[in-house]
Amino acid sequence: MDNRSEVREFLTSRRAKITPQQAGLPAAGQRRVKGLRREEVAMLAGVSAEYYARMERGNLSGTSEAVLDSLARALQLDESERAHLMDLARTASTTRRPARRRAAQPIRPGLQQLLDAMTEAPAFIRNGRLDILATNQLGKALYWPLFQDPARPVNMARFQFLNPAAAEYMTELDHQRAAAAALLRTEAGRDPYNRDLSDLIGELSTRSEEFRTLWAAHNVRLHHTGLKQFRHPAVGDLTLAFEALPVPTDPGLTLTALSAEPGTTSDDGLKLLASWAATLDQSDRSNAEFACNQEISPQP
To answer: Which of 134, 156, 166, 292 makes a 20 to 30 Å CA pair with 207?
Structure first.
């Protein structure tokens, strides 16, 4: 992805979202632009109009953190948008590297043990590309429809945008898709030379008009906590709270755990899901034992 284009489109899109009234400026006279004018952003950020114009043309190379902070305040950026601006500036100030593929990131045994110890909460580990890399038993049961998609690795964004089953499984699919596009945009700013990420974005852009629209909005977000709603094929409707925690020892990985409010129908559904997950686990073991027996049985 071209850093200059990313910077230009991000800054112009954020400038268009702020009205003079929101910025505390008079709105007198006819305005030909949506949102603030460039010179108004420059004034609010405490830089010259020429300097801001250079930044909005896509050149953040050498821009100090103090200027970036002032620009973030002028554009009223939230936490995720400010972090994205810093990522774009860091990329602009480093030597361009060729896009490269990432080696598959192994999940340490200790992390899998931690997941497996969480027996009452669905939990999984994902990377910034939204690949699900590991789950506990309940997590795999909750996200069972994703694992039925033959595409690998299991990817949340690909399922949401390209698999027709997502419309039935996710009751707030529009919200989930918007979140996924924003998370991928955030990751693209953080890791712009990740070839696997670029390939996924290219695939989604080619095959999904809705993704193209969301991607063009340049929205970013941090995904730490909130609610997710599911219509699970085995247990019905579930409303679950989630907490997403970065894994400090494994940069780029996030551990997400979900829970239901005690005494609710979702709590009952989660307990039912645990029973269903146990039957799946038993079926998997039986299939594995059958395959093993077939391999070692003597041939006629």
So the answer is: 134
What pTM did the predictor assign? Answer: 0.88
Alpha-carbon gap, residue 10 to 216, rounded angstroms: 9
Strands 132-135 and 225-232: unpaired
C-alpha distances out from residue 72 to 67, 79, 81, 128, Å: 9, 9, 8, 24
The encoded tokens of residue 53 equal 């114009």
For Cα atoms 127, 130, 132, give the angle at the middle one, nearest 5 degrees: 75
pLDDT at 68 over 50: yes
Separation of CA 76 from chain center: 22
**What is the C-alpha separation between 273 and 142, in angstroms, rounded?**
7
Q: Where are the beta strands (DSSP E) in the chain?
A: 123-126, 132-135, 225-232, 236-246, 254-259
What is the number of other CB atoms lying within 10 angstroms of the CB of residue 175? 14
The answer on pLDDT for 76 being more than 50 is: yes
Q: Largest Cα–Cα distance in the chain? A: 92
Q: State residue 83's pLDDT score.
A: 96
pLDDT 10s digits, 223-232: 899 999 999 9
Query: For the stretch 128-165, what's the b/e string if a residue is b when 16 or more beta carbons lie within 10 angstroms of its beta carbon?
Result: bbbbbbbbbbbbbbbbbbbeeeeeeebbbbbbbbbeee
Please return the burial class of 210, using the count of CB atoms within 10 Å of its CB with bins 0-12, 13-18 and 19+: middle
Amino acid occupying residue 163: N
Backbone angles phi, psi at 48, to 5 degrees: -75, 155
